[in-house]
Specification:
Elements: H1 2-23, E1 27-37, E2 39-48, E3 52-61, E4 69-75, E5 80-86, E6 92-99, E7 102-111, E8 118-129, H2 135-162
Antiparallel strand pairs: 1-8, 2-7, 3-6, 3-8, 4-5, 4-7
Length: 163
């Protein structure tokens, strides 16, 4: 009875780990917050692990005041995949687009304004795989295997006791 409870507990823990990893299928590839003085440009390189969707969120932070202009462009080195620009009309931009995997670049141009000539932007790029591993099917197979091992162990113990 004790081994059954222990096996059931292990199964519950493993199932919980599998299901929690399914919820974290989306991963952050790049997160950056930059202080801008005058006009600046930056290029960030990041790696997409495979085919999926990139979600980009760029925020014109109101500190000490908003940037007078902010633009973003995603490229694969040879072509533009997505772009966004702001001239103080909005404080945040969001983009989503498909990628095949590999190395990509985020190009950002920012111009500060106001008397201090300072501003801040924040960039976050997340990746979500197109075809994740079917975890519920994996969990069922794992539980079936553990139960089969438990049954085989009980059968072997019964034969040893009978002998």
């Amino acid at each position: 009875m004790r081994s059954i409870n222990r096996t059931a507990g292990v199964c519950c823990v493993l199932l919980g780990m599998l299901l929690s990893s399914a919820a974290r299928a989306e991963s952050v590839l790049l997160a950056d917050t930059t202080l801008v003085s005058g006009s600046q440009s930056a290029v960030f390189s990041f790696q997409a692990p495979g085919p999926g969707t990139l979600s980009v969120e760029i925020t014109n932070v109101d500190w000490p005041q908003m940037l007078s202009s902010l633009s973003f462009m995603a490229t694969n080195g040879s072509q533009v995949l997505a772009s966004w620009s702001d001239t103080v009309s909005q404080s945040q931009g969001s983009l989503s687009f498909q990628v095949a995997g590999g190395r990509y670049f985020a190009d950002i141009m920012a111009t500060a304004g106001g008397t201090l000539d300072l501003g801040v932007y924040s960039l976050c790029i997340q990746f979500k795989p197109t075809s994740p591993v079917p975890l519920p099917a994996t969990a069922v197979l794992l539980l079936t295997g553990l139960l089969a091992a438990l049954v085989l162990r009980r059968v072997a113990a019964a034969k040893a006791a009978a002998a």
